[in-house]
Each structure stands twice: as structure tokens, then as C-alpha cells.
Design brief:
The chain has helices spanning about 1-20, 30-55, 65-70, 70-105, 120-130, 130-155, 160-165, 170-185, 190-210, 295-300, 335-350, 370-385, 395, 400-405, 420-435, 440; strands at about 220-230, 235-245, 255-260, 270, 280-290, 305-315, 325-330, 360-365, 385-390, 415-420, 445. It is an alpha/beta fold and about 450 residues long. The strands form two sheets. It has a six-stranded antiparallel beta sheet with strand order 4-3-6-1-2-5, with no helix packed on it. Helix 4 (about 70-105) packs across helix 6 (about 130-155), helix 6 packs antiparallel against helix 8 and helix 8 (about 170-185) runs antiparallel to helix 9. It is elongated and about 85 Å long. It starts with a helix and ends in a 6-residue tail after the last strand.
């Protein structure tokens, strides 16, 4: 989370500083209307910078993952940038329209417009002929972007509709790029802020075209086929085993992938619940019926069905060198730890003389119970030599930091890996921080929310 905040505020601060260098008179405006002009420019640049970076992150680039801590963290930044673009775009619109309303209501004197200066630069002359189109199209693109971003933030909006409507933001973005290029002060383009914006707009335009052509992650996609399906009614979870005979580069435990079983539904992210064995190239997903899409998977999927897999992504891979680890899986958040146990068991079988892995305690807390699923979990834990603690809320009470520390006296030397409800994870983080654990370095939490 720390690097997400650094990237978010750092980007906004950098663009702001560069803009001030290009517009130093903002601190001494000649009039309110002069201030209005500079604020329209500033808010427009900030909004487009945020939208451009969000559009670039929509391509799911691999190179920033290690610094951010995984694609899940990058999607959180993508969301923050979308919200920032929404808020600042509304401010931009109010600065643009508000003074016009004030003049119409008699609150402001209409500006005295002199003769327009003669434009000698041919590029500037050409852009000036497009101002009317840029203003009109930009306003409608603004309305569309506000609606689409708002829909993306509504959790109750079905994913299948979100997938179809969210792609339309790429169209709105391209229109806003045209709007920005035409209406940004021409003098900016030869300044650092203009050069930076030119790079962002160019990269964002490329990203928008890739999104519209449905080529996001195309180089990281492989074709698989469903080999088996098992449903656990007690926990309403479906285990799907997929053969990936060609092209899959392998994955680390704790990583996730995007799976597409229906092109109209688009790609959905799922944590991989299996270790990787090149001699038997298969990937297992465990999905719980929590939303409109996952609730229908049991009826939609069948053995032999082709599935497109993209990935792997994520840095929730249990790599931090601590001699002690505590794993906590809340509900369906147990999935990455299943992959971790299977990976350890595979490594122990293939290399029986290798050094022992870290000592691990796995806590699985759940509101639902399925005997078959828990039996498989216990078998995986035994094969990996991991101490398993299963807590059913109604029977055993809630899992707390105090209960974890009582069960693991060496917790001060441990790293903690959490996957589950966000509020539960945050409560545990605060609890361990209060007990002196350096949570910034040692508390790892998957932010598995892609919208």
C-alpha cells in the first residue's frame, strides 16, 4: 500500500509542479476570469494525467509488479486514479461552466473581449479551427466518462455488464485526448509539463486502442481445457482443473491468472490453487459462488470445455526469507495457501534433500463447512508438513490476533500472509502493529478486488 500511495500522490505532485513552472502567474491572477482560465487548464491536465496512467495500467503491464507488490496493488492504483480523474473532471467542468452561469445570473460582469491576437504558428492556427468541435465533443465525452466511472464503482452493477461498459471508457478517453490536444494552452507544449503530457497522452492512446481491439494480455494467453470439476456444496465452491499443455510459463504459489470461459463475460481473475509441475501441466482454480458470474459457473462449465488462461500475475508468493511464517486464509481466501502447500509438497518429493522450508502455521477461518473440502485441506497440510488450524466461526468463535499469538509463540520472528475479507485483514494488521510487529515489512495482504 505504501508504494501505491507514493505513486498516486507523487504523480499528482510532479504534474502540479511542472504545471506551475509553465504557469507561474497563477499566484498573481489579474482577475477572476484570468484565474478561471488557469484553473481550467490545471484541472484538465491533472484529470488527463490521471486518466492516462489509469489507461496504461489497464494493459496489466508486468514490469511494475515487483515495485508495487503485485497486479492486485496496481489495480488499486488504477481505481484511485479513476476516482481522482472523476473528481477533478467535475471540478474542471465547474470551472469551465460556472463563470458562464454566473454571468448569466448577473453575478459577474461579462468579460470585455478585445481583438484576438494574430496566430502566426501554422499548427496553432490549425488547432484554433478545431476549438468548437473539441469543446462540444469533450463535454459529451466528460458526461460519458462520469457515468462509466460511476458504474464501475457500484459493486451491485453486474460484472458482465461492467466488462462491456468499462471498455467504452477507452472511447471516451480518445475523445478527451482530442479535446486536450486542441484546448491545452499552446505554450505548454514546449515546456516540461507539455512534453510529459504528450508522452502520457501517446501512451494512453496506445493503451486505449489495445483495449478496444481486445488485445490486453494477448501475449500472455494460453489455451487450456477443463479436465475435471468438483463441487463442494457445504462451502458453495467449485474446483476446476484445467490442462494447459502448451505455452504456460509456470507459476509461483500464491499467484493468480485471468480465465475466460465465455467471451461475452470477459476475463475473470482467480487465484491459482495448485503447484506447478511441468510433467503434468495443469492449473486448478477454486471459485466460490459470491457474485453473478461465479454463481453460474457450476452450470456453465463442463469437462472438455476450452478456457483461455492469461498470466501468471501477483507477488503474493511467500518469498521474504523469514524463518517463520503465519498464513491466514479467510473463507475462499484459503486458495493461495492451497497452492503454497501443494508447491511445498511437490518440492519435497522432487528434492528430498533440499533445506527445510520455513516453519508455517496455517489458519483457516470460515463461516461454512464442507467435510470433503476440509479433508483435502488437511491432506495438503500433512503432505507439506504445515500446522493447520481450522476455525468454524459458529463453533470456534472468531479468529483474532490474540488467538494467533497464543497458538504461535514465535510470532515475533514470523511474517504474516493474509488473504480474505479486507476489513478482517486490516483489523489483524492493526492488532499486530500495536503489538510491535513491523507490519510494513512483514504483514502481506492480497488486495484481490479488480474493480
Amino acid at each position: 500500500m505504501r508504494n501505491i500511495k507514493r505513486a498516486f500522490w507523487g504523480m499528482l505532485a510532479l504534474v502540479s509542479v511542472l504545471w506551475v513552472f509553465a504557469e507561474p502567474q497563477v499566484f498573481q491572477p489579474a482577475s477572476f476570469l484570468a484565474l478561471r482560465g488557469t484553473m481550467v487548464q490545471y484541472s484538465g491536465i491533472i484529470a488527463m494525467a490521471a486518466m492516462s496512467v489509469a489507461m496504461i495500467l489497464a494493459l496489466r503491464p508486468r514490469w511494475p509488479e515487483p515495485w508495487f507488490g503485485g497486479l492486485d496493488k496496481m489495480y488499486r492504483l488504477h481505481k484511485w486514479l479513476g476516482i481522482a480523474a472523476l473528481v477533478v473532471s467535475v471540478v474542471h467542468w465547474l470551472w469551465s461552466q460556472g463563470p458562464k452561469w454566473a454571468v448569466g445570473w448577473g453575478w459577474l460582469e461579462p468579460p470585455v473581449r478585445g481583438a484576438r491576437p494574430v496566430l502566426e504558428n501554422p499548427v496553432q492556427q490549425f488547432l484554433s479551427t478545431l476549438r468548437g468541435s473539441a469543446e462540444g465533443l469533450g463535454e459529451w465525452a466528460f458526461y460519458a466518462a462520469v457515468l462509466l466511472i460511476a458504474l464501475a464503482l457500484i459493486k451491485q452493477f453486474p460484472y458482465r455488464l461492467f466488462y462491456k461498459t468499462h471498455r467504452l471508457l477507452a472511447v471516451a478517453y480518445l475523445v478527451l485526448v482530442f479535446h486536450s490536444v486542441v484546448l491545452t494552452s499552446f505554450s505548454y507544449w514546449t515546456s516540461p509539463v507539455g512534453m510529459g503530457m504528450a508522452l502520457l497522452l501517446a501512451a494512453g492512446t496506445y493503451a486505449a486502442l489495445v483495449v478496444l481491439l481486445r488485445r490486453v494480455g494477448a501475449a500472455r494467453q494460453v489455451q487450456g481445457k477443463i479436465a475435471s470439476l468438483q463441487y463442494y456444496p457445504g462451502v458453495r465452491a467449485l474446483e476446476t482443473e484445467i490442462e494447459v499443455p502448451h505455452g504456460w510459463p509456470g507459476h509461483k504459489p500464491g499467484q493468480f491468472a485471468f480465465a475466460t470461459s465465455n467471451t461475452s463475460e470477459g476475463a475473470h481473475p482467480y487465484t491459482i490453487a495448485s503447484g506447478w509441475n511441468e510433467k503434468d501441466p495443469r492449473i486448478t482454480f477454486v471459485t466460490k459462488a459470491l457474485g453473478d458470474h461465479t454463481s453460474r459457473l457450476r452450470d456453465k462449465l463442463h469437462v472438455g470445455q476450452e478456457v483461455k488462461i492469461e498470466g501468471p500475475y501477483g507477488c503474493f508468493t511467500f518469498d521474504n526469507g523469514q524463518p517463520r511464517q503465519i498464513w491466514i486464509g479467510g473463507g475462499i481466501g484459503i486458495t493461495p495457501f492451497i497452492a503454497g502447500m501443494k508447491h511445498i509438497a511437490l518440492e519435497r518429493h522432487a528434492n528430498p534433500n533440499q533445506p527445510r522450508p520455513p516453519v508455517i502455521d496455517l489458519f483457516h477461518t470460515t463461516t461454512e463447512y464442507d467435510e470433503t473440502a476440509i479433508a483435502k485441506l488437511k491432506a495438503d497440510a500433512a503432505a507439506a508438513d504445515i500446522r493447520l488450524h481450522v476455525l468454524v466461526d459458529a463453533r470456534d468463535g472468531l479468529l483474532t490476533g490474540e488467538r494467533i499469538r497464543a497458538a504461535v509463540p514465535e510470532w515475533r520472528a514470523a511474517s504474516i500472509w493474509f488473504c480474505g475479507p479486507a476489513g478482517f485483514g486490516e483489523a489483524l494488521r492493526l492488532d499486530f502493529a500495536a503489538q510491535g510487529l513491523p507490519v510494513t515489512e512483514r504483514f502481506h495482504q492480497e488486495l484481490f478486488a479488480m474493480r
